[in-house]
Amino acid sequence: MSLLRVERLGKEFGGVRAVADLDFAIPGGTVFSIIGPNGAGKTTLLNLLTGVYVPSTGRIVLEERDLTGRAPYEFAACGIARTFQNLQLFFNMSALDNVMVGRYLHEHCSLPAALLRLPSLARAERAAHAECEELMRFVGLAPYVAASSDAMPYGALKRLEIARALATRPRLLLLDEPAAGLNPTETLEIDALISKLAKSGMTVVLVEHNMRLVMGVSDHILVLDYGRQLAEGTAETVRRDPKVIEAYLGTGAAGDTAAAPGAR
To answer: What is the pLDDT of residues 168-199, one digit of tens each?
Structure first.
């Protein structure tokens, strides 16, 4: 049974179709990657799957719950979390407090307890801090637990954003180009983290241009081109699809399977 199902999904901006007639399903516990050339509609699709955009057509169903047209906070409350292409962190806060922002989705403190600083509030805060520190260790940020976010290197900030998303306790984690701008060592760290998430049972939707990373971690790949589905299947199937090769490299490369995405 699929965790997320998309039916005839489309999005138009002033008559321009950014996403058109998409149908796919994401099984639980898998790494589902979305790839395509620049302008293919990948980030638009993620914005639809998190409620940032309202679809022009179609439905988004999480298990049997129709989320079409719901607000982003409702998507988050149902268990869908994401990171962003460009870092969306609070640089005036500590690294740990950035992760705590995600954790507050699950805080249930009454007004009297907060005003009176009752022991129950202190216990809840200690539990939240402990959980967020553990998440930072999980993503490889143990040395930065006490750090200010504005003093952290770029690669660590990418993982900090993942930790914040995990603090919402998601059932579905959407990663928008987590390896963008990273050096080879940092890319390997992200690769290892995605594999670690997959082994833990997390369902991951990955948008990424690094084909070596995509081909190595993905259970299933959806290829977009001009907002439409170009191909779908396993990494090996997609790697050798002539339509995918042509979309990435041009018609002249279509017969050269060695030039397919991720082959080098």
So the answer is: 999 999 999 999 999 999 999 999 999 999 99
Structure tokens given for 79: 């268990």
Q: How far is CA 73 from the centre of its chain?
A: 16
Rounded Cα gap, residues 128 and 216, in angstroms: 34
- pTM summary value: 0.87
**What is the DSSP secondary-structure string of 146-171?**
TSBGGGS-HHHHHHHHHHHHHTT--S
Taking the CA atoms of the chain, what radius of gyration do you get in angstroms? 20
Structure tokens at 93: 């806060």
Per-residue pLDDT band for 22 (boundaries 50, 70, 90) equals: very high
- The DSSP result for 24-47, as a single string, is EEEETT-EEEEE-STTSSHHHHHH
Pick left, alpha or beta for residue 37 (phi over 0 → left; psi -120 to 50 → alpha; otherwise beta).
Answer: beta
For residue 239 the two structure tokens come to: 């790697």
CATH topology of domain 1-79+170-264: Rossmann fold (3.40.50)
Buried/exposed 230-254: b ≥16 CB within 10 Å, e otherwise: bbbeebeebbebeebbbbbeeeeeb
What tens digit of pLDDT does each residue of 195-240 get? 999 999 999 999 999 999 999 999 999 999 999 999 999 999 998 9
Beta-carbon contacts of 67 under 8 Å, excluding residues fewer than 6 positions away, are: 51, 60, 61, 74, 75, 78, 80
CA distance 24 to 6: 5
Domain spans of the chain, in order of start: 1-79+170-264, 91-168
Taking CA atoms, 180 is separated from 64, 183, 262, in Å, by 34, 9, 16
